[in-house]
Amino acid sequence: MNVAERIAALRSRMEEKGIDAYVVPTADFHQSEYVGEHFKARKYISGFSGSYGTVVITRDDGGLWTDGRYFFQAENELCGSGIRLMKMFVGDTPSITEYLCERVTEGGTVAFDGRVLSMGEGQEYEEELAKKQIHIQYSVDLIDDIWEDRPPLSDKPAFFLEEKYSGESTASKLKRVRKAMEEYGATSHIIASLDDVCWLLNVRGDDIDFFPLMLSYAIVKQDKVELYVDEAKLDGRIRDELNKNQVAVHPYNGIYEDVKTMDASETVLIDPMKMNYALYKNIPCKIVEAANPTILMKAMKNEVELENIRRAHIKDGVAVTKFMHWIKTRYDKEKITELSSAARLTELRASQEGYIRDSFEPLCAFADHAAMMHYSPSEESDVTLSSGAFFLNDTGGGYYEGSTDITRTFVLGSVDAQMKRYFTAVVRAMMRLSRARFLYGCYGYNLDVLARGPIWDLDLDYQCGTGHGVGYLANVHEPPTGFRWYVVPSKNEHHKLEEGMVITDEPGIYEDGQFGIRIENEFIVKKGVKNKYGQFMYFETITFAPIDLDGIDPEEMSRDEREWLNQYHEQVYEKIGPHLTEEERNWLKEYTRPI
Questions:
Q1: How far is CA 192 from CA 396, 463, 504, 568, in A?
Q2: How far apart (Å, rounded) are the C-alpha atoms in residues 579 and 318?
Q3: Among 4, 54, 363, 560, whose Cα sits 20 to 30 Å from the Cα of 69?
Q4: 210-236: string of b/e by CB count within 10 Å (b at 16+)?
Q5: pTM of the prediction?
Q6: What span, in angstroms and rounded, lies between the C-alpha atoms of 340 and 362?
Q7: Contact 121, 8 (CB under 8 A)
Q8: How far apart are CA 289 and CA 464, in angstroms?
Q9: Calculated CA dihedral for residues 292, 503, 314, 475, nearest 10 degrees
């Protein structure tokens, strides 16, 4: 069936069940940012392939809510579907609940699969729809009814992450979590987010493309852990570790019935931002709502993790530098496309020891494609590289030593003065934030202006955050902190900057229909001088790959900015040069020259 036929089939099922509106989010049962093929229900029903968005289908209308990263992409992919693009945070675009209250008559019914809707969203629907006596059905999976060839749940094997990589045993992590539970007065703690379960148990999986996580839930008690997972995924090494830590294994979906049997005298700690609505509704006892303790614990990397991550970035820098050399010297001599370049970079990463997989889908965007912040090439959109344009590459590698996220924009041939001015502004923006010195207690929104300043000076902006936390062989977008000048509660970037956090710094300029520029490094939050004014903090840069000097206008930079770039490039040559061929090393010498 094409999209229009799928929507017609969905509406037929809605009519049979007396449903006036059906909501299809972008989510799995764990509120993951990216999901496995089985969970791509929103893409199936709408055709929109972006990583963020919610579709609502009524008897005679339909809408897709997504943010500024995907407006251009969504308009193209929704064409002919009958689904309207609802631009979030723009003008008078109604929220989903406002739309539902307007479109559904009093006493009508709104339905969704509560396992793929967050607890907070479900509660908001309850509160707002009750004002019009609109009923909610939260245990209806109509997409499954019509998706005849739906991919099954992943059954790929998991693997244990040894302590030489994790830096902390499962027993130690459980002890810290149980202490936090005591502070909340909780006897049980339900963890529904995949990265938190996997971090706690030092297990990784292969159930989501690019993110090495395992579909699972956990209930932590003071004397044991109940783990809900497909047991066939667990090898002997994992089983031994689970047995050692009193972890009992149950069928993956068994948690929904098991929580119903919890004793009424229990107190359960849950994270409302990391819990699905259906699981929440099944809990029969007292609830304490707070962030999962594991979120902050895993964000503050230990010394073993940090040393591993530094090594991962050297490996990654070698791959990216080799890739840059290949692009810059070969794009005008052979046919290189967005897709073939992405494949080449993956090959270069795969040749590095300890490589597992790319850490997210490669975003390789040539010319005007790069104006779409999260554009990823497909067979239909793939283009050949040519002279006189920018080529943006936002990619990352997953290694046993950690995950990486790096963006470089390459200049192919020559570009005009304005493009160079914009490119230089983005580089200046990135380095301004990376050079920050600040007192402990600052949040990301206190520092975001440092990056936006050079771009705001041009009366320009970018419609996204400046940076995000990075997980250790887990989610590449990791809470609880990041950089943006405004607070978005759903982004879970509410915590002050703590020592050991690994965060990206990725400002950009995007001109619709023309080009996009983004430069991204990662850094570690470090403690600096402590004096009568307090504890000062700074950032240690850990990404090492050349920034294309062909896009730099030195006249647009101050002396100290040029000095920073020269020192950075000196480090790039020292750290990356020894791992290159002689030809590549000579080329790198030229592209890390002082300016």
A1: 26, 30, 26, 41
A2: 7
A3: 4
A4: bbbbbbbbbbbeeeebbbbbbeebbee
A5: 0.93
A6: 11
A7: no
A8: 28
A9: 40
Separation between Cα atoms, residue 339 and residue 348, nearest integer Å:
14
For residue 10, what is the enclosing H or E element? helix 3-17
Q: Which of 454, 542, 449, 475 is nearest to 465 (CA)?
A: 449
In three-state secondary structure terms, 11 is: helix
| Phi and psi torsions of 547, nearest 5° | -100, 125
**3-state SS, residue 104:** coil
Quote the distance between the C-alpha of residue 216 and its chain's center. 19
Please check whether residue 546 is in contact with residue 572, taking contact to mean a CB–CB distance below 8 angstroms: yes
- Exposure class string for 392-419: b at 16+ Cβ within 10 A, else e: bbbbbbbbbbbbbbbbbbbbbeebeeeb
Relative orientation angle of helices 559-576 and 417-434, to the nearest 10 degrees: 80
Under 8 Å between Cβ of 486 and 468: no
- Which bin fits 354, alpha (ψ -120 to 50), beta or left (φ > 0)? left
Nearest to 472 by CA among 211, 226, 255: 211
Q: Look at the block and give the residue holding tokens 């970037």.
A: 493
**C-alpha–C-alpha distance, residues 457 and 151, integer Å:** 49
Q: Answer yes or no: are the C-beta atoms of 359 and 404 closer than 8 Å.
A: yes
- Is residue 523 within 8 Å of residue 544, measured between CB atoms? no
How many CB atoms sit inside 10 A of residue 487's CB? 11
